[in-house]
Amino acid sequence: MKKKADVLHIIEELKIRYPDGICSLDYPKDYELLFSVRLAAQCTDERVNKVTPSLYARFPTLEDLAGADVAEVERYIHSTGFFRAKARDIVACAQKLVNEYGGRVPGTMEELTGLPGVGRKTANLVLGDIHKAPGVVVADTHCIRISGRLGLTDGTKDPGKVEGNPVFIYLDAFSRPEHFAEFLPEYQNLDELKAHYQRGGLGDVKIKKFLNAVMQAELEPIRNRRKEWEQRLPEVVEILKEGSAVAEKTAAATLANVRKAMRIDYFADNNLLK
Known about the structure:
- The protein is mostly helical and 274 residues long.
- The protein folds into three domains: 6-142, Hypothetical protein, domain 2 (Endonuclease III, domain 1, Orthogonal Bundle), CATH 1.10.340; 166-229, no CATH class; 233-273.
- 65% of the residues lie in helices and 0% in strands.
- The protein has helices at 4-17, 30-39, 45-58, 62-66, 70-77, 83-101, 109-112, 120-129, 141-150, 166-174, 177-183, 190-199, 204-230, 233-262.
- α2 (30-39) runs antiparallel to α6 (83-101), α5 packs across α6 and α10 packs across α13 (204-230).
- The chain is extended, with a radius of gyration of 31 Å.
């Protein structure tokens, strides 16, 4: 990563090149930015800017959106993707803004993240663009990627969480020390990998590639064995027939024992008729 002097130089150069660095989402009203950011999830800002004019023409006030039918809102925002969840969040958020905040967009992280559909990323953007809160940075995927390219960071999310992480759940189950020697020699074992991930500086892509290598190594002998049996299909059929016959015989014996124990073997127990 770069030294402080280099970072300051980059910041000054960015100010010169982008003197009017503003949000790319169009929002004449404060609450419209809140909803536009929600619409931008898994969608481009360009697409959102094409959708919102007709949406706000139909629902020109916050009160209109608060009283809107969710299904109708869905039709206006359909092209942004995940439209059902987005429409539900927008209407619920509008209702909360009207009922609890008098139509005002709140100015604290706690209040903003308490709104339907609003996470920390959206809250940070609103705090910076609407409330002009100093030092607010929206550290999303794009920010991390560009910061890494500029050398301001190593480009990874920091720190990582191991508990409940599906990648590490699979690594716990399948990885062995020899896998590290073959695929990830800079680590001795899984404990070292977890420790690095938890303290930061290790990206998800790297550990996912390692997991893929581990799983491919585990599956390779299974695939090879299957290919062998594919060349011996008549034998497979005979094995299945023999196994089915044994299973049927065992199942019949088990069923007979159960009937006898429960005294429901009506045709074998003559005492039931007395």
